[in-house]
Give the backbone structure.
Amino acid sequence: MIARLLAFVAIIYVLGFALFAVTLGEPAPADTPKVDAIVAITGGKGRIEHAAELLAEGKAKRLLIAGADPSVRKADLVARLHAPKKLFDCCVDLGSESVDTRSNAEEARRWVERHHYKSFRLVTSDWHMRRARYEFDRQLDSRVTIIPDAVRTEPNFGTLFAEYNKYVLRRLSVWLDI
């Protein structure tokens, strides 16, 4: 009986991983309406670049880069991204309070509430979008519209496996209230 139960759990786990791996986050459609803001989570290639491009294109009024290292300055990003200094001076906030996905969502919630925003694009990697979206949905009022905008990557098996386990463990910890 116990062996069957463990086999069943293992099958569910493997099928869940397969589903997770083939249903990664997608970029937002090109015709996505303008939003109040953009929140980009640091930690993956192309995230900040994509968010800065969206801001420069006028897709939002302001950008929060959540999880920025406290030593990073706007001038560093302007130089690295070859972005207009004027745009970064007026419309980009560097959030350095967060250290993981859950605290990224908490930091973003405070920022969204402070600015009274009703909608924003969430920019992160395709493999990270499911867990990020879960954390942001838990933190933000349901009246705030979140548009997921995943940056396409080519994650390896190890990245996918680690992210799937983080996602499953986070869902379990919330379910078990621990």
